[in-house]
Design brief:
By secondary structure, the chain is α/β, with parallel strands linked by helices. It folds into 2 domains: about 220 residues, P-loop containing nucleotide triphosphate hydrolases (Rossmann fold, 3-Layer(aba) Sandwich); about 35 residues, no CATH class. It is about 35% helix and about 30% strand. It has 9 helices and 12 strands. Helix 3 packs across helix 4 and helix 3 packs parallel to helix 5. The longest helix has 16 residues. The chain starts with a strand and ends with a strand.
């Protein structure tokens, strides 16, 4: 079975249950899936559980393999993980940080690693930042370097936590186009996004996380409905079709229950 299947995912922090037996549909290679939902719904927790960075109940299968039983070194090759933010205190320059991500646990010649890391920075349009210390980069520049770190090993599964939160409009498009391209080459791409306009435009599938479960999932037009947005976010929303058949979500205010 090709794809990512997460079933019965449960996470507790102390006495508090954050994910309560959450199931994801089978996420297929070639698809970009967006995880959305309110603050504190557990989206980052879910990404970490999938990446096996967070103790959890339930099972995560990648192409039929239970990731909990895949050695860490092999997992690092299979999964690219882009966290919500990179530490700003690192003493590395951007290129070194991408080389470090590439070489973790691998034996790779220095020249080969340099060239591969530089190629990724160039592809993302940030080659000019190669020798800048991470600590001197802007939030958006750091986010693009973080993407470079996540994709440099050419992972089968790419997990990204709010990858566009610090990016300007042009870089949002660059990052999301890159995700589309990677998916088109057969990767499985899963990104947490708060921006539902971006989700509507770029996702093949949206999964709405709420109350510790998958509240709804499907194509953007199936999930971004006024009813579901009222239930999950408590907002009054209108959904309009714009040119090119895309949908747009307009928020009119908070939802008055009744
Ligand atoms: N290490 C931790 N220890 C204790 N509680 C935690 C920890 N990490 C997350 N939580 C709690 O788990 C809940 C879910 O957090 P998580 O970061 O997964 O949510 P999220 O959906 O990604 O939120 P946001 O949209 O605000 O980024 C929150 O209530 C948070 O306070």
């Amino acid at each position: 079975m090709q794809g990512l299947l997460a079933q019965g995912i449960s996470v507790r922090y102390g006495a508090r249950s954050v994910l309560a037996g959450l199931d994801l549909p089978l996420l297929r290679p070639g698809e970009v899936t967006v995880l959305a939902g309110p603050n504190a719904a557990g989206k980052s927790t879910l990404l970490r559980a999938i990446a096996q960075l967070q103790p959890h109940g339930g099972q995560v299968l990648l192409d039929g393999q239970d990731l909990a039983h895949v050695p860490m070194r092999d997992r690092a090759r299979l999964i690219g993980f882009m966290p919500q933010s990179l530490p700003s205190s690192s003493s590395l320059v951007a290129l070194e940080s991408v080389i470090a991500a590439l070489r973790a646990g691998e034996t790779l010649g220095a020249r080969q690693a340099d060239a591969a890391a530089m190629a990724v920075l160039d592809k993302l349009g940030i080659g000019a930042l190669a020798l800048e210390p991470l600590s001197a980069l802007s939030g958006g520049q750091r986010q693009m370097v973080s993407l470079a770190q996540a994709i440099v090993r050419d992972p089968r599964l790419l997990l990204l936590d709010e990858p566009t939160s610090a990016l300007d409009l042009a870089r949002q498009v660059r990052l999301l186009s890159e995700l589309r391209r990677l998916a088109g080459e057969g990767r499985i791409v899963v990104a947490v996004l708060h921006d539902l306009a971006l989700a509507a435009q770029w996702a093949d599938r949206i999964v709405l996380i709420h109350g510790g479960h998958t509240h709804a999932e499907g194509a953007p037009e199936q999930v971004l409905t006024p009813q579901l947005l009222a239930q999950v976010y408590g907002v009054e929303a209108r959904v309009e079709r714009c040119s090119r058949g895309r949908i747009m979500v307009l928020i009119d205010g908070e939802h008055a229950p009744g």
